[in-house]
Every structure is written in structure tokens, then in C-alpha cells.
Amino acid sequence: MAPIKLSDLSISDFRKVDAWKVIESSYEEEELRLVPADKNERGNLLRKNGEVWCLTKATFSNGAVHDAVCMSRADAAEVPLSRSVWNGEKYVPLFVPPAPGFVLKTHGPKPFSKEFNERLENVFPIDFEIVPRFETAPAIRRIVIGVKGAV
Q1: What single string gives the DSSP state of each residue in 110-147?
Q2: DSSP string of the chain, one letter each residue
Q3: pLDDT by residue (tens digit) across 6-52?
């Protein structure tokens, strides 16, 4: 499959291929280019993939489940990073402290909740669980995010 830019991947692309590996690092203004990630015979992401962008399940505190995309590393025991949740129209990025105030003003918990027409307490804490499993422990990658960061 030909490389594709991260910004060109739709949520339907992630539903078809649940994990994409970065084939070249982003420098300056260049965007990440990705291809489907390699998996072992059990369907787990191989450590050789390095940085991967994966379909993720985001469960809001009110029980609503949304498709999301998270970045993780297949070669390290990292929790999901760089979270964006699909609101039915677009990806909505989420940043929490210790992100700078100017970032939180536009992409923090309050503006994030508004993008889903929900009150803050109906959204947070959010449970993010990456759909594909990993060869490198932990196989299941998840994190719970509250308004002040990881819970």
C-alpha cells in the first residue's frame, strides 16, 4: 500500500486498518507519512513498527463510546499519547495539563467537551483503550484522562 499522510486518514480508514506505522519522521513542516503496521501471526503489533497511530475506543464518563485515534510506540511500554476523538464530523484533539495555557484554551477539556455538546462532567474522566494489541508488553494499551491529566 502506498504511504498516506496522517491528515488524510479518515476514521473509516482506521476501521479498515486499525494500526498505521510512521515510515519517516516529521521534520519542520512535513507531515507524517504512514503505511499499515506489521503484525505477528496472532495479530499483535510488532515492536519493529516503532511509532504507530491506532484506532482507539474513547469511553466518556457518561458511558458514550466514540472512535478515537492515539499514538503509541510498539517498541516501548507507553500509554496512548496524542489523543484525538471523532465527533462524527472531525477529529477533536485533547490536551490536558501540563500543556501550556494557550493550548488548553483551544484544545483543553472545556473546549473539547463543547465539541461533543456535553458538559465537562459527562465527558471526564475519559477511558482511552487502543483497539489493536501489542507484541511488546503491555499488550493492552489504555489510559484514563481527567481534566487535570492522567488519572
Answers
A1: HHHHHHTT--HHHH-SEEEEESS-BSSSPSS-EEEEET
A2: ---EEGGG--HHHHHHS-EEEEEE---TTPPPEEEEPPB-TTSPBPGGG-EEEEEEEEE-TTS-EEEEEEEEETTTTPPPEEEEEE-SSSEEE---TTS-HHHHHHHSHHHHHHHTT--HHHH-SEEEEESS-BSSSPSS-EEEEETTEE-
A3: 889 999 999 999 999 998 765 555 678 899 999 999 999 999 999 99
**Residues 68-84: tens digit of each pLDDT:** 999 999 999 888 888 99
**Res 61 pLDDT > 90:** yes
> Going by C-beta distance under 8 Å and a sequence separation of 6 or more, which residues neighbour residue 136?
47, 74, 75, 76, 77
Distance CA 139, CA 77 (A): 9
Q: Is 47 left (phi over 0), alpha (psi -120 to 50) or beta?
A: alpha
